[in-house]
Design a protein that fits this description.
The chain has 275 residues and is of the alpha/beta class. It has one domain: 3-Layer(aba) Sandwich (Rossmann fold), CATH 3.40.50. Helix content is 41%, strand content 17%. The longest helix has 33 residues. The protein is globular.
């Protein structure tokens, strides 16, 4: 009579392990591809209306990958923005997102990551950090030093921007729709799984933010269903002064760029004059 309860427990445990394994597979199947969803084709900047006036710039990583970005030098303002786009974006979308800043006279360098827009390599967390550093060096070769740079990250790109802000003495950091970490986002969707053991690329903005010591602007749409706004506000709470938070009422994850530009351009204008 004792064997039956034990057998029942073993069967229940077995189904539990199967469910856990299925959940783990689901995370690998859903999170990993959606984290990196690159467009596959390169388009010259001259073929894109929003990129008129931009030119191609090459950036070579320490590992030897040669990547192409688009660059519009500053015309009337003292700073140049390095823009790190989101997961499913590329240079074409990035040009449209940053048009207001170019029109305001700021320089803009659109960073392209490995595996995106037809570039060589396969995306990974450490790889994207290497790509970002390569574009910092490329901008330096154009005569722009880190103290004249403002790092601008959107969505996935906020992970790269925050990381580089801990490494270079930049003039400022702007984040649109930032997250605490990829783990935190996934944990919210799958609270019963050991996400930290399953998600390889975490982009842990939360642990790095206390090490950022430049002026910070965070913008987040209040209707964002991809990265919950509470992630942006929690990241803001971890940041050092000077910092500013702008909640963009009614904006979602994909339509907050125009409203963010309206607050970001005045914020840029209040930065100390470039040395």
């Amino acid at each position: 009579m004792r064997a039956a309860p034990r057998l029942g427990l073993l069967i229940a445990a077995g189904f539990g392990l199967l469910a856990l394994g299925a959940g783990a597979f689901e995370i690998h199947a859903r999170v990993t591809p959606s984290l990196y969803d690159p467009p596959a084709q390169y388009v010259p900047p001259g073929d894109v209306e929003a990129a008129r006036g931009m030119r191609e710039v090459r950036a070579v990583t320490r590992g030897g990958l040669a990547l192409r970005g688009w660059y519009a030098p500053a015309t009337a303002k003292p700073y140049t923005l390095l823009f790190f786009h989101g997961s499913g974006d590329g240079l074409v979308k990035a040009a449209r997102m940053t048009t207001p800043f170019v029109r305001s006279g700021y320089g803009v360098l659109l960073v392209e990551f490995r595996g995106y827009s037809g570039e060589p390599g396969t995306p990974s967390e450490q790889g994207l950090y290497q790509d970002g550093r390569a574009f910092v060096r490329a901008l330096q070769s154009q005569g722009v030093e880190p103290k004249q740079m403002v790092l601008f990250g959107y969505s996935l790109g906020t992970g790269v921007a925050v990381k580089l802000a801990t490494e270079y003495p930049v003039a400022g950091l702007m984040l649109l729709a930032p997250f605490l970490s990829i783990n935190k986002i996934t944990q919210h969707e799958h609270p019963w799984l050991p996400v930290e053991l399953l998600v390889k690329d975490s982009y842990d903005n939360a642990s790095r933010m206390p090490n950022v010591h430049c002026p910070l602007l965070i913008g987040h749409g209040t209707a964002d269903k991809v990265v919950p706004v509470r992630q942006g506000t929690a990241l803001f709470d971890l940041a050092n002064q000077p910092k500013a938070l702008k909640l963009l009422g009614g904006d979602g994850h994909l339509n907050a760029f125009a409203d963010f530009a309206k607050v970001a351009i005045p914020w840029l204008g209040k930065l100390p004059p470039s040395p």
